[in-house]
Amino acid sequence: MGAARGDTLGRTEGAVSEAATTNELMVVTPRAQDMIRRFLAEEEDPSDKVLRVGVASGGCSGFSYEVLIDQRRPGDLGQAFEGFELVMDPRCLQFLQGTVLDYVDTVGHAGFSFENPNAKASCGCGTSFTP
User: Fold this and answer.
1) Which of 47, 57, 88, 130 has its CA 20 to 30 A from that of 68?
2) What ranges make up the beta strands (E) of the chain?
3) In what order do the strands lie in the sheet with 99-105?
4) According to the model, what pLDDT value does residue 18 have?
5) Cα–Cα distance between 61 and 4 in angstroms, integer?
6) Sign of the CA dihedral with 61 first, then 3, 87, and 84 last
7) 92: part of which helix (H) or strand (E)?
8) 48 SS3 class
9) Residue range 70-111, pLDDT digits in tens
10) Is the pLDDT assigned to residue 1 strictly greater than 60?
């Protein structure tokens, strides 16, 4: 299944981020886009909600992925898709740019999966990585 690409909207307090305008942030598969739209539709007021993707220190490989429904914050980098916007803190760009976000639903696991070209190593469950 091919991955769809969104239009990048780099917004940093009145200025457009050069990194976000010259390259997309992430690739989001159609299956993941469908699930994101479903999750957003379940929100009480989805009109001001975005999908935030990031990284946090921790996990068995050093950094773990974060995915949550949130609101846009000043300085966020954003990428528009049909029906939603994906955002991230600019500090996460070096770890996530070019990553493919998919949604898997198998017998033992349902959730977002990351195919990260910036990861030197990943844990077996795919929720953490070493940059």
Assistant:
1) 130
2) 7-10, 26-28, 50-57, 63-70, 77-81, 84-88, 99-105, 110-115, 121-122, 128-130
3) 26-28, 99-105, 110-115
4) 34
5) 28
6) negative
7) none
8) helix
9) 999 999 999 999 999 999 999 999 989 999 999 999 888 888
10) no
CB-based burial, 83-104: b 16+ in 10 Å, e otherwise = ebbbbbeeebbebbbebebbbe
Q: What is the pLDDT of residues 14-31, one digit of tens each?
A: 333 333 333 589 999 999
Neighbours of 121 (CB within 10 A): 10
| Structural domains of the chain sorted by starting position, each given as residue range(s) with its CATH number in brackets | 7-121 (2.60.300.12)
The pair of three-digit structure tokens given for residue 107, joined into one six-digit string = 């017998």
